[in-house]
Amino acid sequence: MIRAAHTMAHALLCSCLLFGVKTWAVTIIVNPSVTISSASQNAVRAMFAMKLLQWPDGQPVRVFVLPDDNPLHRTFCKEALDIYPYQLRQTWDRQIYSGTGQAPTEVGSEEEMLKKVASTPGALGYVRKVKPGDRVRTLSVSNPVRTFSAE
Amino acid sequence: MNRTYIKILVVALALAGHEMNANADSLPEGVQVHGFASQAVISTDHNNFFGNTENKASLDFTELGANISWRLNPSLQLSAQAVSRRAGETDNGSPRIDYATADYTIHASENTRFGLYLGKIKNPYGLYNETRDVAFTRPSILLPQSIYLDRIRNFVLSAPGMAVYGESVLPIGNLSYQFGVTRPDTSDRETEGTFLGKDRPGKLKSDAFYIGRILLEPGNGHFKLALTGVSMRAHYQPGAPDALLAGNIHFDAWVLSGQYNAENWVFTSEYAQNHINAQNFGAFLLNRAATGSSYYVQGTYRLTPRWSALARYDVTYRDNNDKDGQAFSALIGVPAYSRFAKDLTAGLSYELSNNWLLRGEFHHVDGTAWLPYSDNPNPAATSRHWNMWLFQAAYRF
Questions:
Q1: Strand bridging mode A62-65 / A137-138
Q2: Which residue in A93, A97, A107, A116 has the most chain B C-beta atoms within 10 A of its own C-beta, making it the best mutation to test that interface?
Q3: A148, A22 in Cβ contact below 8 A?
Q4: For residue B116, which phi and psi values (nearest 5 degrees)?
Q5: What is the CATH number of the domain that holds A119?
Q6: Owning domain of residue A74
Q7: Helix, strand, coil shares, percent, chain B, to 5
Q8: DSSP assignment, residue B51?
Q9: Of residues B7 and B86, more confidently modeled
Q10: I want to staple B182 with a disulfide (CB 3.0 to 4.6 A). Which of B159, B215, B316, B347 is the partner?
């Protein structure tokens, strides 16, 4: 019985990996003014790299991030963007010190992140989990390999 | 122009910018201010590098910069940066406009972007050139001198002109490109020294400088592969008493760059070839053409989140047909070892915070091909084998 349950759990885990359905430890959030509810990983990566600067409806994107050494920022970079935090920093540095772009706004904590994203039109950020009553919406990320559902 | 006064201004702007940035709400919407500063201590056992360093400790290497950018809307950004750099006799710290660029994005979607840069623009040469004065963006205190020769930095760094740029998401990875035409200043002592043997009474003036780079980043930038091409035409305006005639310089170069980014490892290598052709300078600078080559291999390893170590081997030959420099030496009379350099470097970095960085590094060098002329005016007084220690504290915001 226990063995059967174990096998079933194992099969379930395998199928999850196989079909690429996975719940991340991070949720991408946007200001309610943002009209889309999902975007490709390429688009999200380009927005956090400060290269894609407007939403499909033309509204400017306002990006908020936690500090480079924040554990949630590290998780976010690796899981949601599939890059290392230092690569994102290199991209911003190249832009701000060569006149070809800007850096995102850094916030000190998840609470501040929620507050800023809720109050800034076009805002994009991330937190661990959205609670009922938070005045933000979640953005799901789709790519050919993985499908992200924000619960 | 009162240099000290302007320097105080740069520092004041940097500090003011830092204050504003720490409290970003006080800046108008779309405006950002950033800056950087560094101070190094350099010492050598022979030869001078960025100051009087032979058996002394020199503080003559300082970098200061501040910039402001204004994102007017998603398709237009205006930016400018002022830099003051002291580097021994090669750079005296007088502030200059590093770039003043209008960036106009013609098209941007999630998979394709392209646009124009206009004004004084930064050149994308290899992997490190665009931000080479910002210590945080370099892997070491000195960039590999074979490819990022600080002696000719002025005309490679930035210049007035225009460029087209773009980026495309391909199945194999991100492809980005930039092609530009500029007219750089080539009349400084170090550039004339490189092309004309020494600082000359007249002026070396550029006619046009073409530069292009294609960068492919497979695997979300875990791999980087780049090819840069450069071509410059310049002519010489002789001075009042001048041994040289009004000759021409053709300079062409290409760089192949590769990088692998792992979580804790970064492995980088670049290979470059350059061709210098000097013609019609008369009897005192005979027509000559030489193809030189350079390469380095470099590994950095993050020991802890704050500590990282670097090792690099960096080689340059001024003339592939005369790698040991004997033929050139017999003809011109300068030491043969001034035609090559092999540099073994080891370094250690400590990031105090996201804004502060401390570095130390050691160079063991055979040859003087990239030794600054201005710090070593008498080639016969240089030594072939030399060692150099550098320490640097750097700040950015």
A1: unpaired
A2: A97
A3: yes
A4: -130, 140
A5: 3.40.190.10
A6: 20-148
A7: 15, 55, 30
A8: S
A9: B86
A10: B159
Q: Is residue A4 part of a domain?
A: no
CB spacing of A100 vs B263 below 8 angstroms:
no
Is residue B22's pLDDT more than 80?
A: no
pLDDT of residue B214: 98
Measured between alpha carbons, how far is B106 from B76 in angstroms, rounded to an integer? 9
Which pLDDT score is estimated for B201? 87
Nearest CA in chain B to A97: B131
CA distances from B77 to A146, B44, B94, B291 (A): 35, 44, 27, 40
Q: Calculate the alpha carbon distances from A141 to A22, A54, A148, B20, B237 in Å.
A: 11, 17, 6, 34, 60
Which residues on A lie below 8 Å from B104 (Cβ)? none
Is A130 among the domain residues?
Answer: yes
Number of domains forming the structure of chain A: 1
Instruction: Indicate the DSSP class of residue B42.
Output: E
| Distance in Å, alpha carbon of A124 to nearest chain B alpha carbon | 15
Q: Which two structure tokens, joined as six digits, stand for B181?
A: 């035409």
- At B289, the amino acid letter reads A
Q: Which tokens go with B67? A: 């910039």
User: Residue holding tokens 């580097």?
Assistant: B87
pLDDT in tens, B312-334: 999 999 999 999 999 999 988 89
d(CA B98, CA B303): 34
C-alpha B270/C-alpha B257 separation (Å) is 4
Q: In the structure, what pLDDT confidence band is assigned to residue A1 with cuts at 50, 70 and 90?
A: very low
Q: Is residue A32 part of a domain?
A: yes
Q: Do A53 and B65 touch (CB under 8 A)?
A: no
Q: Is the dihedral of CA B357, A74, B215, B74 positive or negative?
A: negative
Domains delineated in chain B: 3-396 (2.40.160.10)
Residue A116 lies in a domain: yes
Residues A13-25: tens digit of each pLDDT: 444 444 444 556 8
Q: How large is the average pLDDT for residues B365-371?
A: 96
Total residues found in chain B within this entry: 397
